[in-house]
Design a protein that fits this description.
The complex is a heterodimer. By secondary structure, chain A is mainly beta. Helices cover about 5% and strands about 40% of the residues of chain A. Chain A has 1 helix and 8 strands, in the order H-E-E-E-E-E-E-E-E. In chain B, helix 4 packs across helix 14 and helix 7 packs across helix 11. The model of chain B has no long low-confidence stretch (mean pLDDT about 100). Classes of the chains: A mainly beta, B alpha/beta.
């Protein structure tokens, strides 16, 4: 059985500013990032849907020590965002200096853009992650 | 399943920049384990070995077959187990299952790792590879970042002001070093202060350098036997009375439960049930303290405190060897060190010593310890739990 939405197709869409998810026709749960099965009921009766890209910051960190080759990105802020449709996804946060980010950003509403990670020796190509900014 | 025991164990000194290869480290620990079990290499029927990054650290894949040959265990099945930081615990759990099921009588299980050969940037890259590589690594996730995010979430979820939580977490690291200083095999044998922890450089906010375990080189191994064989080899067999293992998906997919790592609750429930014990019966626990916060999160899911309340265990000193809930008397990953492919075997090795009462002179013996729990986490969500007892039920 083939994937309804592969990581390549998900990234290609995100590069056009469209965040895609998979809505389960059996239980209604939205899964994002994509998987073979519904994260809630494990069903495979999934439909590709465009998500609003808005959500709320649930947690974060400002990272100072990075992986090889990503030193010039540091420091950067990683966030886990609960999307309006339900799933949590990981991305980065702009609009605030990582050196000044505090726990007060938890609960703030954000909107997803995107940023490409060019890839490294081990990543099998590039990737795209959501780049969030504040909407309030 | 028939009864399964740990007989002898071996453990190298944990350190930075070992001049030895992964095979040499493992062979030293393994030969010590075989000798202390009063066995010969020819008696070992299988080798189950944890190793995560031998390929990258020293260009050595399939390390288990060369290790088997090095220690003189010719022609046996040798299998490598990879479950990130839980690799050796998986190997030991599988050894217990295969011996318990009656297929083997004597299995050597353990692990080896030379993390420091990678250097911090490459090691950070490959530890991050134990997170989700497609959807979470692109955001720059590192392993400290995973637990850093869990720390902020823990503070928010349980309404503990971050400065108060940080104070407790500093105390967790201070205790780890207190016991590491008393463990001659530990990587760090020096005590630290809360001020040093809270004055350290930020690795990933709010975690500072001394909230984090080090990169480590080292190996550990134990001999796992049927009870029948074990009784012929040692007057003090340690019983593997229960085990469990569970897994979960990428961090974001665990949103229903975070900051709890639900796989741990699933795994330890299996182990407690099999061993017919409850959390209150555990006399000594070695849990996966890769970061200071990880200790609190683990202690709660293992049933030692209500969710959000584990701070009290450390704040009140209950986690010391004289307390009601002794945790990480070896110094833990934080101070003893964390050679990821070997860590679980190291935890088992130390708990066996506790259950045999061999650590009095080191000043970290839990008086009268009879039941031990091992908890190891790999990546975002491999958890293995082992219950050890110094008596047969």
């Amino acid at each position: 059985m083939e994937y309804k939405l592969t990581h390549r197709a998900y990234f290609a869409s995100l590069k056009k500013g469209k965040l895609l998810g998979l809505k389960c026709s059996d239980c209604g749960t939205v899964t994002c990032p994509p998987k073979m099965t519904c994260q809630e009921c494990t069903g495979t009766n999934l439909e590709i849907v465009e998500l609003k890209g808005t959500g709320v910051i649930k947690t974060f960190t400002a990272a100072y020590v990075t992986s090889l080759g990503r030193e010039n990105e540091a420091p950067y802020t990683i966030v886990l965002v609960e999307l309006d449709e339900g799933p949590w996804i990981m991305g980065n946060l702009v609009d605030i200096d990582p050196r000044k980010v505090t726990i007060d950003i938890i609960g703030r509403k954000v909107d997803a853009g995107f940023k490409t990670f060019a890839g490294d020796t081990y990543s099998n190509g590039d990737a795209v992650r959501p780049l969030f900014s504040f909407v309030d | 399943m028939r009864r399964v025991c740990v007989v002898g164990g071996g453990h190298t000194k944990f350190c930075f920049n070992t001049p030895k290869s992964g095979i040499e480290l493992f062979s030293e620990a393994a030969t010590e384990a075989i000798n202390l079990s009063n066995l010969k290499p020819k008696d070992i029927q299988a080798l189950y070995m944890g190793n995560v990054f031998g390929d990258i650290e020293e260009g050595q894949s399939t390390i288990q077959i060369y290790a088997a040959n090095d220690i003189g265990c010719f022609n046996i099945p040798a299998s490598r187990f990879e479950g990130a930081c839980a690799s050796a615990t998986i190997a030991i759990r599988d050894a217990a299952a295969w011996v318990g099921g009656g297929y083997f009588d004597i299995v050597l299980a353990g692990g080896t790792e030379r993390c420091t050969a990678m250097g911090t940037p490459l090691a950070t890259r490959f530890f991050a590879a134990c997170s989700d590589g497609r959807y979470e690594f692109p955001s720059g996730i590192t392993f400290p970042s995973v637990f850093a995010m869990l720390t902020h979430l823990y503070s928010k979820t349980y309404n503990i002001p971050l400065p108060k939580l940080k104070e407790t977490l500093a105390g967790v690291s201070v205790q780890s070093h207190f016991y590491g200083a008393r463990n001659p095999l530990a990587q760090f044998q020096k005590e630290i202060t809360k001020e040093q922890v809270l004055g350290g450089a930020f690795v990933s906010t709010p975690l500072q350098l001394l909230d984090c375990c080090p990169f480590t080189d080292g190996a550990a191994a134990v001999v796992i036997c049927s009870e029948e064989v074990a009784k012929k080899l040692t007057p003090k067999p340690i019983y593997i009375a229960g085990f469990g293992q569970a897994s979960s998906g990428k961090m974001s997919a665990q949103s229903k439960y975070l900051p709890r790592l639900y796989a741990r609750e699933y795994s330890v429930k299996q182990a407690y049930s099999m061993a017919k014990i409850e959390p209150k019966d555990v006399d000594i626990c070695e849990l996966h303290d890769c970061f200071s916060t990880a200790s609190l999160i683990a202690a709660e899911s293992l049933g030692f405190a209500e969710f959000g309340k584990a701070s009290e265990l450390w704040d009140k000193g209950e986690t010391k060897h004289t307390g009601k809930r002794p945790i990480n008397m070896s110094g833990g990953l934080k101070s003893k060190g964390h050679p990821i492919g070997a860590t679980g075997a190291s935890q088992v090795h130390d708990v066996c010593k506790q259950l045999r009462g061999e650590l009095v002179e080191q000043g970290r013996q839990v008086d009268g310890a009879k039941v031990g729990l091992i908890d190891t986490l790999g990546g975002d969500g491999v958890i293995v739990s082992l219950v050890l007892k110094n008596f047969a039920d």
